[in-house]
Amino acid sequence: MRHQSGGALFGLLGLLLPVFFPSLFSPLSHASAFSEWNAIKPRHTHLLKSAVERQSSDSVQNEFWNPLSDPGWRPCIQTTNAPSLPEKSRGYVQVFLDGGLNQQRMAVCDAVAVAKILNATLVIPYLEVNPVWQDSSSFGDIFDVEHFIDVLKDDIRIVRDLPDEFSWSTREYYATAIRPTRIKTAPVRATVNWYLENVSPVLQSYGIAAIAPFSHRLTYDNLPMDIQRLRCKVNFEGLIFVPHIRALGDSLVNRLRYPSDDSRATAGNYLREVTDSTAKKVGKFVVLHLRFDKDMAAHSACDFGGGKAEKLALAKYRQVIWQGRVLNSQFTDEELRSQGRCPLTPEEIGLLLAALGFDNTTRLYLASHKVVTEENQSNILQETA
Ligand SMILES: *[C@@H]1O[C@H](CO)[C@@H](O)[C@H](O)[C@H]1NC(C)=O
Ligand SMILES: *[C@@H]1O[C@H](CO)[C@@H](O)[C@H](O)[C@H]1NC(C)=O
Ligand SMILES: *[C@@H]1O[C@H](CO)[C@@H](O)[C@H](O)[C@H]1NC(C)=O
């Protein structure tokens, strides 16, 4: 429980981002395109109205606030593992991580695994700036680097920076031309053998391999057990936030749990309290990360009822952000809906919460970059909970 509240909170910010950004080193200018999709209309007003008017009984309420029963999960790390640091490093592995923070966290686990598979030295991963989140923090701004290196010191070698002889190997160097040390073609969920066959020779020849893009580039099927355990170790022991993020997380959760009138007044754009402070269940709250941003709406290829204007706007985002490479485009809207491929709108989330038994006494917070249909849909949630 080292991450505790801070971890939960920051985890939320990247939780629902199943996005692959193929154009790793492209300029981030398309963020401006996000301003053109107008608010969508609520579509289930009568349903919502009756849901809002229903009060759930105390027994229903008690049930959903209770912790889930223990599913019997056990830690995946065998701490008794004998140290297995290879005698000699076979070179440096550099990775450039796109996606949101959660994707980057997973990719860090994979990067350690890949460096281990190759008996290489890992350079502290480079975090790309994501066009949606616009966060320019480096690995060391977010995670405790010293702790990371120390926890993993018996498993792999990790360095903060490349030695001088490799200092040419930078993001800029790879962005400006085709370079033999860049591994550009790692398939999504590449196998151990793929790395041995394609990256080992590069390490052999140049002493360094820069893998970009890297997010989601390691399979989880049939990975050797010791590599799986290492991924677990990175995730649950190696990665902790820097102290000031942990402190901020704790204080945020504290405020969410026990809001005072003061904190209501100073709540910023990121966490907005949308319910009445008469909530009777002190300490209990729901945080939603809708991730219903325009890029996700466009990526889903779904129809949100906004007619021709919406269709055109979303088609444009698809073109700009994913160069038209959106798998869902091959399906009709009916197919997408019946296959559960459409993100829930804020309105639909409101219905879902009401159906679960949450009512207007529930304290509800929105954690989000920006909700697409901010005005209308926040109102809807406000009515619901
Ligand atoms: C909550 O819903 C109940 C039942 O519909 C209603 O009587 C009450 O006024 C609502 N409370 C607030 C704060 O909206
Ligand atoms: C890595 O080192 C281990 C022993 O330390 C060896 O068995 C394995 O073949 C090496 N793998 C590569 C890719 O060099
Ligand atoms: C939704 O937002 C639009 C534009 O802000 C506004 O004109 C409209 O009245 C809103 N609809 C509802 C149901 O709040």
TrEMBL record:
Subcellular localization, as worded in the UniProt entry: Membrane
GO aspect biological process, one term: fucose metabolic process
Signal peptide: 1-31
Entry GO MF terms: glycosyltransferase activity
Protein name (Swiss-Prot/TrEMBL): O-fucosyltransferase family protein
Topology class, membrane: Single-pass type II membrane protein
UniProt keyword list: Carbohydrate metabolism, Fucose metabolism, Glycoprotein, Glycosyltransferase, Membrane, Signal, Transferase, Transmembrane, Transmembrane helix
Matches recorded under InterPro entries: FucosylTrfase_pln, GDP-Fuc_O-FucTrfase, GT106_glycosyltransferase
A UniProt-annotated Pfam family: O-FucT
Family: Belongs to the glycosyltransferase GT106 family.
Pathway(s) the chain acts in: Glycan metabolism
One GO location term (cellular component): membrane
